[in-house]
Amino acid sequence: MIKLIQRRCWILVGLIALQFSKLSYASIEAKLLDNSFVILQYHHVANDTPAVTSVTDEQFIQHLDLIEQLDMNVVDLADAIDKVRSGEPLPDKSVAITFDDGYKNIANQALPELVKRGWPATVFVNPGLLTQSPSYYLTWPELKHWSKQKITIANHGWLHDYWVRENAQNNHQWQQKIKQSITDTEQAIIQHIGYSRKLVAYPYGEYDTWLQNWLREQKLIAFGQQSGGVAGFSDFTALPRFPASGIYANEKTLTTKLLSRVLPVDYTQLPSPIVSTDNNPPSLSFKLLFDKTNQLNCFIGGKAEMVMEKLADNRFQIKANQSLDKGRSRYNCTMQSKEAGRFYWLSQSWLIED
């Protein structure tokens, strides 16, 4: 009788644990539904600019129509971040739209079309470049005009130069130069626009730990060019954006990205993207914040060229099976959510040093 009671107790404990696991997963998914969003990144919107960083006017309109067809909610970038950080709910399927560099061609059709639809957007600018080439970049008076129509003007550094490719980890003079570039841009935005939302986009999407730490001290939010979404457990000095230009303009793949979810890990614990030759290929480890781990897939360059090891306590370690090429690379991990056609997504940027 005692053994029978013990057995039933263990069965009950197991059922409770299983139910708790389900509730834990469900509660995290519910939180993601209420408090996350994705960001699109554009550069040129024109028919005669470099294809790799461009969409045509027609493609851009098609993207906006797609957003509408998917019943997406276009949100102001800074406002959405404030809500995510405070835990205030966002509508499901929220998306923010951004443009890097402030090219003049985005004012031909892209910005007017957004204004026509009543949708906000953010334009990251380089003050040094727009002053040097006013025929190529939006000028301060033009940016001021758009800023009055739900278009936020934000920081892309004084010049579109590399911020972390000069052995900056140990070069105090170089670090000071980059910090001054960011500070000067903030001051220029305040001077010409009247305010700053304290948003910074990394040129080329490249960053390092020393820069993240300084941006955090300055209470600046920073954005890369890796894939994924934004949630409360994101690293707000390395927020992802989905590129939507060039080969990424395809509507089918863009639909998957627009509907994606944030893979729940602690993004503040992810490693620096800078990788020395001695540590190539780099290793990435993370812990999933829920128990649904059996459908995780990781890849690089669209191919499953990865070694993935599942460790204890929902931890994973992944590594490419050969050295990465010099320059920028990414590891991507995805996992099917409970909703058909919607995937969790994580992307880790790497910058392989010479």
UniProtKB/TrEMBL annotation:
GO cellular component terms, semicolon-separated: extracellular region
Membrane-spanning intervals of the chain: none
Pfam families given in the database record: Polysacc_deac_1
Family matches, as SUPFAM superfamilies: Glycoside hydrolase/deacetylase (SSF88713)
Origin superkingdom: Bacteria
Species assigned in the record: Catenovulum agarivorans DS-2
Name listed for the protein in its UniProt record: Regulatory protein, LacI
Keyword Transcription appears in the UniProt entry: no
PROSITE patterns: NODB
Lineage, opening ranks: Bacteria, Pseudomonadati, Pseudomonadota, Gammaproteobacteria, Alteromonadales
Domain NodB homology: 93-319
PANTHER family (alphabetical): POLY-BETA-1,6-N-ACETYL-D-GLUCOSAMINE N-DEACETYLASE, PTHR34216
Keyword Signal listed: yes
Keywords from the UniProt entry: Signal
InterPro entries, per the entry: Glyco_hydro/deAcase_b/a-brl, NODB_dom, Polysacch_Deacetylase
GO BP field: carbohydrate metabolic process
Compartments where located: Secreted
